[in-house]
Specification:
By secondary structure, the chain is an alpha+beta fold. The protein has 3 domains: about 110 residues, no CATH class; about 110 residues, no CATH class; about 190 residues, Nucleotidyltransferase, domain 5. Helix content is about 40%, strand content about 10%. The chain contains 15 helices and 11 strands. Strands 5, 6, 7, 8, 9, 10 and 11 form a 7-stranded mixed sheet that branches. The chain has a two-stranded antiparallel sheet with strand order 1-2. A two-stranded antiparallel sheet has the order 3-4. Strand 7 and strand 8 form a beta hairpin. Helix 9 crosses helix 10. The longest helix is centred in the middle third of the chain and has 25 residues.
Length: about 500
């Protein structure tokens, strides 16, 4: 194969094909002799091609070609017509490359000094100097002398190579901002993801990882919409990060509240890519976690009822509202809708429901901050889940007795009286001690620092998904709300 000569002619055409083999610069633009072949459809044969051309983790496209220089002549089917197309035999694999001198069995050549010492036979005339130069192959490479190493030395060298490889991998991980960099520190995992330990995080990842293979990415959806509407062609950009690192990026954004520009610098990707990753994972987790039923039946709630609720055994859910500060709109009409008189700021408002043992069992969508607690409870949809034999526990601001079909445990009002009775004081204190745990649950949600700052109006399109995901993640990220409530 090394002795082949290739005639270089200019081929007229709209596009040129190039060989994907490393160190091969063959192009169809100036070569009419070499043919170019696509990768086989058979996966096993395609893997052999990738292995032989030394292109690990290689992304194959319909335009990827391997030229005929890398195949043996027996593997090629010459065309019968002069203008026909050269084909490959089934199962043919490229084996001829520059690193093996375009030969499958290159002979071992002797060194120049060894050839010089060899004298011609006595019965033959010496070869003229000019012919010696003509027969010499100047493209050949001298074979290095064999090094005599003992088995122990070879084993020591192998161990040293393995150690150096591990050091390179560790340095690469330390340099990159990724999940693997913080895997050994539970404190860092807690800071960046709000999961208690790395093992908790990986257990959650194993739950969602199978579904992530069917994730619909924002980039692909937009590309499909563009093609269907305008007929434009184009491929969506590929993934810049591994799926688990994309999930880690989303959790850092949610838990630490880093801006998209900051995340782009940390993960060494473009800011628009960060935006697409956040939106994609917000929709994905909203769909996956939202498909799990979190509202519990009365029997399940009773089975996990802490003894502290023994005076209120029919309590189904403890509810409260929370508000997230948002950027002030420029429109005066919108300002009046989202302005909260309680917070004296523009806010989004949502309702959270907690089971007596501390799990999130209900959360509403976010509404404008001007909505009242009573109206929010009506529109949230929780009323349809309550039964007459249930009870809810709420703050004294929830005057919803006429809205729900069940009993309401609520601290007592003075009702223009000078003081409450002793029984009312005891009941108020008892309810307050139990109801305060829903405040602790809301604080866990707001430990995601994205909601602890003023939310920009630019993300209002996905704020409901982000808020819902943060509420649902609370059930996975933390231990029991009260350690004494944990059951063995």
């Amino acid at each position: 194969m090394s002795s082949r000569s290739f005639k270089c002619l200019r081929c007229e055409g709209a596009t040129s094909m190039y060989c994907c083999v490393p160190l091969c610069d063959t192009s169809s633009r100036f070569n009419s002799v070499v043919s170019f072949h696509t990768f086989p459809l058979d996966k096993e044969t395609s893997k052999k091609w990738i292995h032989y051309i030394r292109r690990e983790d290689f992304n194959i496209t319909p335009n990827t070609r391997v030229c005929s220089r890398h195949f043996k002549s027996d593997d090629l089917i010459e065309p019968s017509a002069p203008t026909g197309r050269r084909l490959l035999k089934k199962g043919a694999v490229p084996t001829l490359f520059e690193w093996n001198n375009y030969s499958t069995s290159a002979p071992r050549r002797t060194g120049a000094w060894q050839r010089r010492e060899v004298s011609p036979p006595l019965n033959e005339d010496p070869v003229p100097v000019d012919l010696q130069h003509e027969e010499h192959d100047y493209c050949s490479f001298p074979v290095p002398a064999a090094v005599d190493l003992s088995l122990d030395q070879t084993e020591d060298l192998r161990k040293e190579v393995e150690q150096l490889r591990k050091q390179v991998e560790e340095l690469s991980v330390r340099h990159r901002f990724c999940l693997g960099r913080f895997a050994a520190s539970d404190d860092d995992i807690r800071f960046y993801t709000r999961f208690v330990t790395y093992n908790h995080l990986m257990a959650f990842w194993r739950l969602i990882e199978p579904a992530s293979h069917n994730m619909v990415r924002v980039t692909r959806a937009r590309a499909a919409t563009t093609r269907s509407e305008g007929g434009a062609s184009g491929n969506a950009s590929g993934q810049c990060l591994q799926p688990i690192d994309e999930f880690f990026l989303f959790m850092v954004h949610l838990s630490v509240g880093l801006t998209q520009r900051d995340l782009a610098h940390r993960f060494d990707i473009h800011q628009s890519t960060v935006s697409r990753i956040i939106t994609t994972w917000a929709h994905f987790l909203y769909t996956v976690l939202g498909s799990v039923r979190i509202w519990m039946s009365k029997e399940v709630v009773k089975a996990h009822m802490p003894k502290e609720f023994q005076d209120y055994p029919d309590t189904q859910v403890v509810i409260n509202c929370t508000e997230l500060r948002c950027q002030t709109p420029t429109s005066l009409l919108l300002q009046s809708e989202v302005f909260s008189s309680y917070k004296s700021h523009c806010t989004f408002k949502g309702l959270i429901g907690m089971a007596p043992h501390g799990a999130v069992t209900f959360m509403s969508s976010l509404y404008a901050g001007s909505i009242s607690d009573k109206e929010l409870l009506k529109q949230s949809g929780i009323v349809s889940l309550l039964k007459p034999d249930m009870a809810i526990m709420a703050d004294k601001g929830f005057l919803v007795d006429d809205c729900v079909p069940c009993k309401v445990y609520r601290p007592a009002y003075l009702s223009k009286r000078e003081q409450m009775s002793a029984d009312e004081v005891k009941e108020t204190q008892s309810i307050a001690r139990l109801r305060v745990h829903v405040e602790r649950l809301i604080r866990r949600v707001k430990q995601h620092k994205l909601f602890d700052t003023v939310i920009p109006l630019s993300i209002t399109g996905s704020i409901n998904q982000l808020y819902t995901v943060a509420c649902l993640l609370v059930n996975y990220q933390n231990g029991p709300l009260v350690k004494a409530w944990a059951k063995d």
